[in-house]
Amino acid sequence: MSRFTAVVIALAMVCAIAASPAAAQSAPPQAYSTPAGQVQSDVSTGNDGQADRPRQVSKAAASHLPFTGLDLGLLLGVGLGLVLIGAGLSRLAATASEDRRG
What whole-number distance in Å separates Cα of residue 67 and Cα of residue 99? Predict the structure, then answer.
């Protein structure tokens, strides 16, 4: 077994051991009981304690998606840059291995 494989396996075991107490945690029961549970269900269903009534949505607000703050152009640029760096490193590694062979 190579040294790298042994280090990766040891690191995985340490991470698994460190994560086991967190996996055993559970939410306290009072968080989902009354009144907190009722408030949570009201919020998730949109019920504010009043009778259901239709909500007015303006035509302008419904015509486009809301801005979430995520710049897709920047995200695509970073992704393309990472792909190009990976391809360049792959070519460099292939060239270096051919040079070593002779």
Answer: 51
